[in-house]
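pasting for the record
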Amino acid sequence: MAKSKRTARMLTRLEVEILRFVWKWKLANLMTLKYALAPQRSFWKFYRILRRLNQEGYIQEKINPEIQATLWTLTKKGFQVLDDGSMNFVTLGETLESWQEEIVRMWRFKKTNSIVEGMHTRMEELIRRAYGFRKFENFRLRARLYLG
């Protein structure tokens, strides 16, 4: 009977931020991680995220009896995730998903406001250069010449 190969799930943005934080500081406890990355989440939900990362082998739990605290460190698998460039694709995917409606609208309706935006940019350049004009008519003539 063939073994079913289990595919790795994609990490969420918060999980990647947890791995980056632990990598930067080498050791981190629950309070520090929670307040630095997700102060709005409850401790229990944040602890469950850490436990899941621990079970999947991304971070390792170390209990320090001197300070009576649980500290988290990265494992080799956690380093590999941070070193792998595919995490940029996760960010790209989230961005595309959040802008999906606007992107579809751009391809469906072939009209853009790029001409108006370009004129606006040129007017801003002209305003920056036109501090020496004393009369509005001179500024107006310059704007008409500059914009064509």
